[in-house]
Amino acid sequence: MCSEQCKREYYCSKKCQKTDWPRHKEKCQPMEQHLLDMRRSIQKIQEVPHIMDDLRTAIALELLSIFQSPNTDPEEIHVIVILVFIRPCYPPDYFDLMNPNVPLEPLLQRTMFGTLRFVHVLNRADVEEEPLEEQYLLSSRIHEASFIRLGNRRLGR
């Protein structure tokens, strides 16, 4: 089940959705606004040359592994999906950003050094068999689980 307005949060039931509303309402926004924010983020990433080089390298390595496989059909179309998470390097900055009780305005004035993490480079030639939205959710859960294993608290909580 998905949040009606923003369509970014998924819930197992209406009850879970209602329980999570106090936390979710702080960041809830229409999908159009979310897409605009995503476009701005992508444009900023594209402005940093070494990040684009790293993305190209990740794609090239994924394609190389695909085409070196004996089972590869040369006629098959490949869709490469790269999941990237960006967050502050310094844990107190990160946790302040994720804490709805910390006012956002002073945080926006603070200089924060960030880290970019490639979570997955996925090859999905058949997006009907494995829809991209489901792949994204799975990869997000994998990223969150590894983050928690490293001793960090749950994202957005």
TrEMBL record:
GO terms, molecular function: zinc ion binding
Keywords for the protein's UniProt record, in alphabetical order: Metal-binding, Zinc, Zinc-finger
Highest taxon above the source species: Eukaryota
A Pfam family of this chain: zf-MYND
MYND-type domain boundaries: 1-28
InterPro entries linked: Znf_MYND
SUPFAM superfamilies assigned: HIT/MYND zinc finger-like (SSF144232)
Signal peptide residue numbers: none
PROSITE patterns given in the database record: ZF_MYND_2
Protein name (database record): MYND-type domain-containing protein
Organism name: Cyclocybe aegerita (Black poplar mushroom)
Lineage: Eukaryota, Fungi, Dikarya, Basidiomycota, Agaricomycotina
